[in-house]
Fold this protein.
Amino acid sequence: SIHLLQKGNRSEALEQVETALSLDRYNTAAHVMAGIIAFQDQDINKAILCMQEALDNDALCMQALYNLGLIHKKAHNLENALDCFYKLDKMLRNNVQVVCQLASIYEFMEDSGQAIELYSQANSLAPTDPSILSKLSQIYESEQDKSQAFQCLYDSYRYLPSDIKTVEWIAAYYLEAQFAEKAVTYFEKAALMQPDEIKWHMMIASCTRRAGNYQKAFDLYKAVHHKFPSDLNCLKFLVRLSSDLGMPEAKEYAARLMKAERVSQLRQQRETDSAHSKSGSAASVHSLPVPLNERPQSLNDRRQLSAHLNYDRPYRSATRDIDSSDLSYTDAVGRVERPKTGKRKETREDEFDDLDDSFLPM
């Protein structure tokens, strides 16, 4: 049944469970399976009853006890969950999964001391498990113990160096501790794992700039700009560094920055106008005329429409005397001059040479 449930054949699995219980109502495994199905159906009370009935039939059924603990944990019945897992801990000494479940429950209860003790016990049982070390690091960080958090996460990184979140945390830790050169090492690893993520390349250049190597930082920003030419932040740093270093490229990058900002503003304006036009077109749908296929076709419909429009009223013409204003004409357009095609319109190129440095980022 469990294999059918894992494949998504819930109805067939439930049918097998019901068949097994009809043949033997004391079938412990069938009760456990029924509880799992009920839990997946979000019927917590029925799931608890099924697991308890399985334990009534076999008090040493570890599957029923473990699943009952998980169900109580899901239902936030934390004391009952602790009771289940402590019973399992007596039955299965030094089981990593049971110890981690106990630690997780204490973590939910915000008992950091007990959670750290149990996660440390689990770490001693499985010292190469990076997830346990990561959990310990999170709790230490919540307790404002940065050094212990770093040590645990650094050990986790040694066993799983491809975890991007761990790499980012270590790099940020070194950067916060004013070790920019060490932070560069981990940001470079992150850039290797995610080469199309501009954040890592920008952080490498930023750390190099903080370390005081401005020329290398300028070269790194140039490389980032070559790969991501539309990024405004990169252009701002290029303008600032080239100006501070007195490089001749300062005006060129300033011109590129101005053009990029204009393009960005135009794009935002275009998106805003497009959103307004869509909302306007949606509102104007209600004012459209009635389509031909919705006009009255039958005789009764036409009669109802005629009665509604009062077509049966006699026609009466309105008469009045004609005065001089009716015989006069005034051109509403006014005088129209002949277009002058002989004179060319002067064109002017945008000039960026006389830029002011006041727009540069501080």
